[in-house]
Amino acid sequence: MKKKQKVLIGLLIVTVLSIGIASFFMHSNEDEELVSALMEQFDLTSEINTESEDETGIILEGSTFLDDFQTIYGQLVTVNVTEMKDDHAVLNITAPDLYSVLKITGDEQLILQNLQSQDVSRVTNEVAVNYEKTEEGYYIEESKELINAIYGNAINYFEELGSI
Predict the structure, then answer these.
(1) Other C-beta atoms within 10 Å of 72: how many?
(2) Chunked in runs of 10, what are the mean pLDDT values of the chain (164 residues)?
């Protein structure tokens, strides 16, 4: 084989590998952006304002439970993007099993203790989500399945109680 052909084949291999690596990192960054947007959208990355009204109209003055819960819980939730298309994605969400924790206790301090325990059980749910990508970032369409996955099947618990 001529030297010129070997050089061209070498350049072709390097080019194909470069495109593959760039494509991997591009998708990896999009995955990370989607996960970050999801965590932010569900207030699992920043502190909440306990002096304001929540959606139910209840004023949460002086409550530290929600701040503590959010801080602890947000660190325990992991989200992996298994498939990502133009406007939808499939997520594997691993979270503390709030269904089991709530079955044991409704006491705020015991909930926090259970979450902080090394033995807290976790559940993994696969969820398909729709999203919209804008200049500001991602907006993930919330669904019962997504909320249930993020909050460790807690919706199932409240449905059993007849609260939902």
Answers:
(1) 17
(2) 60 51 51 88 64 45 77 90 92 94 90 90 96 90 94 92 79
